[in-house]
Write a structure and sequence with these properties.
The complex is a heterodimer of chains A (375) and B (244). By secondary structure, chain A is mainly alpha-helical. Chain A has 18 helices and three strands. Chain B is an alpha/beta fold and 244 residues long. The chains are: A mainly alpha (375), B alpha/beta (244).
């Protein structure tokens, strides 16, 4: 199946439509909430939470014996929340730093989850096959009710975010100050964290425990490159996330055996790399271009200043001087001279150069001009 | 004597086992411009943060104009240390100043035209109106400090707590800030500043508290800013010449 065939199928094929819609919604909600996680410097929290969800899935299966995704995800939610509160507990109650607490809980819960999974696989229960799909996710198992669930949580999340936008924003920027204004920061904090956990749990079926944190971080990191406004960033992250979901599904569906979760994550990574390089204000490319341009401008100014220095010694500022003289100056190249002529700062006559009136004045005011530009 | 703006009773704060503040009793009269001085680790910032309820004290109580702090929050504004936030946060100078209005707005309600106008006025007062749309990471250290000051000004409080507002700012900004603080005092406000530069205490402030885990002394600068108290606070023989 190639891409055009896929696009046709999205509109006609029920299964593919469900999966595409599911991954798009998932990408949007994780991108949105991921912005908050990134700005709170809690990028790794998502990784810890998703890994912490694994034992919950296994335990839910052991208790109910059913493979109904809602039941399993409820288990994931509970153990994800338990993991989160343990992390917080460790950070506040001990001297351990947050990265240590995150790493500890992540590996502890994941290890326990893997143990339970292998235990389940040894059971003589035909139903047990396929639980390991939660490790890397399997978008193909998404059904309409899953998508509805995602849509409901996303809607709830949107409503809460819009309602408490002001509170979210100020807590993200300056938590201590928020407290002094009389806001209960704990409530805002719990609200944000709960939604992050919810979004992660929703994504486990599609993207899986191991790769889930990329869904949170990648769209947010990409979005941050394009804007200096929080609302635009959250919006862009949602768009990037949704497109990662759609493109990822499209690619994996059109190339038969590619599993969807990793492809979605890779597409999100492409967004990140593209943004890092091509963002106009923060991107590497334009930064480098600006850097080179600045250097050139400075070289030009320095050469002009050097010429001004020579011209000053004469009463007539337009008195011609030998080009040879300029060879003593390091910054001088034929190119800079040509540019100075183009700017009408310098006139050339054979082997001689002279400053124009404009050039002389510009050179005299170079330093003062730079100061005013700085301010 | 004036009203007592801030009264601290038996305040004791500890992070682990060792107390950072021990049994602080403090009365700050209304309308003073007060410096809190003391060596590193003396608990200056901790004192402010405990008064403001950011840190939970082990014992002690704080009252603002005779009532518990929790009921008087609206009267108090806070300028945290500049380094306490991430200045790469995606927001503008005006937006940060607007945050000062969030307290009076309360939950959910968004700032409107009235709040925007007040914020623009505060920006103008600190000389930063031209930078209102600037992303905050593109401001210099001194400009960031002024933005924090404007955010507190917009709260229109009676009492201002400031944590090292002169840290890392150039001479021009320092003068601009101290002039604003003096204006606040003139308007009858009480301003409490964690301060590091002992040389400028007599010039800038009229009230001073010496702190080193315990309160060493508190009172008018002209009465108690002397070598004796400085030595008691800093533990070494201190000599400053106070211009009369």
């Amino acid at each position: 199946m190639d891409i055009t065939e896929y696009i046709e199928l999205v509109f006609t094929d029920y299964t593919l439509r469900t999966i595409t819609l599911g991954t798009a919604i998932l990408g949007a909600v994780t991108g949105m909430l991921g912005s908050f996680a990134v700005l709170r410097k809690q990028s790794l929290l998502g990784d810890a939470i998703s890994h912490a969800a694994l034992p919950g899935i296994a335990i839910a299966f052991l208790i109910t014996g059913a493979k109904d995704s809602n039941t399993l995800l409820l288990g994931a939610l509970v153990s994800g929340l338990v993991g989160t509160f343990w992390i917080r507990g460790i950070i506040t109650k001990t001297h351990l730093k947050s990265d240590t607490a995150l790493g500890l809980i992540l590996s502890l819960f994941f290890g326990f989850g893997m143990l339970l999974l292998t235990f389940i696989q040894k059971q003589p229960n035909a139903n047990q096959a396929g639980l390991d799909k939660y490790l890397f996710g399997q978008a193909a198992t998404l059904v309409e009710s899953d998508v509805w669930m995602m849509a409901i949580v996303t809607g709830l999340c949107l409503i809460v975010m819009l309602t408490f936008w002001k509170e979210f924003k100020i807590l993200l920027f300056d938590a201590d100050y928020t407290k002094t204004l009389g806001f209960n920061t704990k409530i805002i904090d719990i609200l944000i964290t709960t939604f992050i956990v919810l979004a992660i749990v929703l994504g486990l079926q599609t993207v899986g425990v191991v790769l889930m944190s990329a869904m949170l971080l990648a769209p947010a990191a990409a979005a941050r490159q394009w804007t200096n406004s929080l609302s635009v960033m959250v919006f862009l992250a949602a768009i990037f996330g949704a497109f990662s979901g759609v493109f990822g599904t499209a690619i994996s569906a059109s190339q038969n055996n590619l599993s969807t979760g990793p492809v979605i994550v890779l597409v999100a990574a492409v967004f990140v790399v593209f943004s890092f390089i091509f963002s106009p204000s923060r991107g590497l490319l334009f930064k480098q271009i600006r850097f080179i341009k600045n250097r050139r401008d400075l070289e030009l100014h320095k050469t002009l200043a050097f010429m001004h220095h020579i011209a000053e010694t004469h009463e007539d500022i337009s008195h011609p001087h030998a080009i040879k003289l300029l060879n003593n100056f390091q910054g001088y190249t034929k190119n800079t001279l040509r540019k100075l002529v183009e700017k009408d700062y310098v006139q050339l006559q054979g082997n001689m150069w002279s400053l124009t009136k404009v050039g002389f004045e510009t050179a005299a005011n170079l330093y003062t001009k730079q100061i005013t530009e700085d301010e | 004597m004036n009203n007592i703006a801030v009264k601290v009773d038996d305040l004791t704060v500890a992070y682990n086992y060792k107390p950072v503040l021990w049994d602080i009793d403090l009365e700050i009269p209304e309308g003073v411009l007060m410096a809190i001085v003391g060596p590193n680790g003396a608990g200056k910032s901790t004192l402010i943060k405990s008064i403001l309820g950011i840190l939970k004290p082990i014992a002690g109580s704080v009252s603002i104009y005779g009532k518990p702090y929790e009921k008087q929050r609206q009267l108090v504004a806070y300028v945290p240390q500049k380094g306490s936030v991430d200045w790469d946060f995606p927001t503008t100078a005006l937006d940060v100043v607007m945050m000062g209005t969030y307290g009076s707005l309360g939950w959910i309600k968004r700032p409107g035209q009235k709040e925007k106008k007040a914020s623009l006025e505060a920006l103008e007062k600190v000389g930063m109106l031209a930078f209102k749309s600037r992303q905050i990471s593109q401001l210099s250290g001194g400009q960031q400090q002024r933005i924090f000051l404007a955010r507190a000004l917009v709260q229109n409080a009676s009492i201002y707590f400031m944590d090292e507002p002169f840290q890392g700012v150039d001479a021009t900004t320092e003068i601009a800030i101290i002039n604003i603080l003096k204006e606040l005092r003139k308007a009858g406000k009480t301003v409490i500043v964690v301060h590091h530069d002992l040389q400028t205490v007599p010039e800038y402030f009229d009230w001073v508290t010496f702190l080193n885990v315990k309160k060493i002394a508190t009172g008018p600068v002209k009465d108690i800013f002397n070598d004796d108290n400085l030595t008691k606070t800093y533990g070494i023989n201190y000599k400053v010449s106070i211009q009369e």
